[in-house]
């Protein structure tokens, strides 16, 4: 009995995040820790949707679990949006300091004149794509011609228009078909090509025994961007120290997730109770792959944002001018990395 209990204890300990690394080195400008704790600043982070292993969420989960926020002088409350843009409303009301939004959403909100700035870009490519049955004969976007293509909420995404344009097609060459958010309509054969969130829905569809081919618009030259951290413009302008502290802590969390993804999933399950660990690992792996860049996770170039803006403008999604300096504030996160792309 004791042996069994000891084994169970070891399994439980193995699921806890190993928070000893990575550790951000202390620079000469930072004070040496003392026995007197400094007061913590209260911060609210509200993720844009339910708890799951998106890297932008996992980075915050691990920063919380491993004490990285506290080391930066922050006491962070992590929340998740209940829908209907609750996260954006709380950010604009300054009841939350940070939230998430896709690159396209950040551009649109900024062009609308809302006081928001993206301070980190996690997804170097977007997370929306398409799937077709592996036995359908659909191998490239050119094969979409004459097929039924699902659209959600009655919206024809710019990514779809751009992907079709790349092979000389328009939406007139396919049969657009409204679908809901339940992929069973695709599994049951009611639509040829189904729109998915690439981080989790292909996994769910394959679990039904359906072999599929996936189509990521970025693989076909379409400019897309994934999740960002969004902050109120006043916070970015008036309190860059707060932004820097939040980003340093979450970047450490993201690095830990990259090094120890199973433990990152275990931490995620504390927030996403009842979620399928295998599906969460699939999502995290997809997000980690999409976040990679040589000069450090979370960074972005002006060219990336200009390319996305051009795509959204071309297909009528973005109809208002984007005022300078643009939605992305890259100086703060850029200052957290050295010339080799290592977190300072």
Strand segment tally = 10
Q: Helical percent range?
A: 25-40%
The best one-word shape is globular
The level-1 CATH class of the largest domain: Alpha Beta
Run of helices and strands: HEHHEHEHEEEHEHEHEEHHHHHH
Report the uncertain regions.
1-15, 21-35
Mean of residue pLDDT values: 91
Q: Helix count, per DSSP?
A: 14
Notable features of this structure?
D-Maltodextrin-Binding Protein, domain 2, 10 strands, alpha/beta, 2 domains, single chain, disordered N terminus, 16% strand, 344 residues
In a nutshell, what does this entry contain?
The chain is of the alpha/beta class and 344 residues long.
Structural notes for this entry:
By secondary structure, the protein is α/β, with parallel strands linked by helices. It has helices at residues 2-14, 55-65, 68-71, 86-92, 103-111, 158-165, 184-187, 201-207, 233-238, 240-259, 261-271, 277-291, 302-314, 331-334, and strands at 41-47, 74-80, 98-102, 116-121, 128-133, 148-152, 175-179, 193-197, 212-215, 227-232. It has a five-stranded mixed sheet, with helices on both faces. The radius of gyration is 21 Å and the shape is globular.
């Amino acid at each position: 009995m004791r042996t069994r209990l000891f084994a169970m204890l070891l399994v439980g300990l193995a699921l806890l995040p190993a928070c000893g690394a990575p550790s951000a080195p202390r620079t000469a400008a930072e004070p040496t820790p003392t026995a007197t704790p400094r007061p913590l600043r209260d911060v609210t982070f509200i993720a844009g949707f339910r708890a799951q292993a998106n890297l932008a969420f996992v980075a915050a989960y691990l920063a919380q679990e491993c004490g990285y926020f506290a080391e930066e002088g922050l006491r962070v409350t992590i929340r998740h949006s209940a829908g209907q843009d609750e996260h954006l409303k709380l950010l604009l009301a300054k009841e939350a300091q940070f939230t998430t939004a896709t690159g396209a959403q950040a551009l649109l909100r900024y062009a609308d004149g809302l006081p928001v700035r993206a301070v980190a870009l996690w997804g170097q490519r977007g997370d929306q794509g398409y799937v077709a049955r592996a036995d359908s004969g659909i191998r490239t976007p050119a094969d979409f011609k004459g097929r039924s293509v699902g659209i959600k909420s009655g919206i024809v995404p710019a990514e779809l228009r751009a992907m079709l344009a790349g092979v000389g097609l328009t939406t007139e060459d396919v049969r657009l078909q409204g679908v809901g958010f339940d992929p069973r309509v695709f599994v049951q054969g009611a639509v040829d090509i189904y729109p998915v969130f690439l981080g989790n829905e292909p996994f769910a569809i394959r679990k039904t025994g359906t072999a599929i081919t996936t189509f990521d618009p970025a693989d076909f030259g379409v400019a897309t961007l994934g999740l960002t951290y969004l902050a109120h413009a006043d916070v970015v302008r008036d309190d860059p120290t707060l932004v820097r502290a939040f980003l340093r802590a979450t970047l450490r969390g993201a690095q830990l997730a990259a090094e120890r993804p199973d433990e990152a999933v275990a931490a995620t399950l504390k927030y996403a109770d009842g979620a399928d660990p295998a599906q969460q690992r699939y999502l995290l792996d997809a997000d980690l792959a999409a976040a990679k860049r040589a000069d450090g996770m979370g960074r972005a170039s002006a060219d990336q944002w200009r390319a996305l803006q051009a795509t959204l403008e071309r297909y009528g999604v973005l109809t208002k001018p984007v005022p300078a300096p643009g939605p992305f504030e890259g100086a703060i996160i850029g200052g957290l990395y050295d010339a080799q792309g290592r977190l300072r």
